[in-house]
Specification:
The chain is mainly alpha-helical and 121 residues long. It contains 4 helices and 2 strands; from the N terminus they run E-E-H-H-H-H.
């Protein structure tokens, strides 16, 4: 499930909450964010490795590579028993920006992205 919460710039009041995938994708496209849902072409085991994940999503990944010319990709699996979970999690939780275009997709679990773009959505 995807949820978009748009908080008032004033910092007070209730956020606008959007739950319909098409409406979220439409709102995000206005600020240059592309949102898609992909379906793996085969079942994936909970302990699938990088090669298995990339192979299961090979068609949409190939389309992205064709469109944007990515030079590398990797898979991160961050479960509760990962030995470096705390340090990896803190890296992703810290507010940061990216100079280069990046793609994130989640096979399982969840992610949270915060964008501060005053009145742009």
């Amino acid at each position: 499930m995807t949820v978009l919460c748009i908080h008032p710039e004033s910092g007070t009041g209730d956020p606008k909450v959007v739950r319909e995938h098409a409406a979220i994708a439409d709102a995000l496209s206005g600020i240059g964010v592309q949102l898609e849902r992909w379906q793996a072409d085969r079942p994936l085991a909970a302990d699938a490795d990088q090669a298995q994940v990339l192979e299961a999503y090979s068609d949409p990944i190939a389309l992205l590579n064709q469109r944007f010319g990515f030079q590398s990709m990797d898979v991160v699996s961050l479960g509760p028993d990962h030995p470096d979970r705390d340090s990896l999690r803190s890296k992703f939780l810290a507010e940061h920006t990216h100079d280069a275009f990046e793609v994130r997709f989640f096979v399982d679990g969840r992610g949270l992205f915060y964008l501060h773009l005053a009145d742009r959505v």
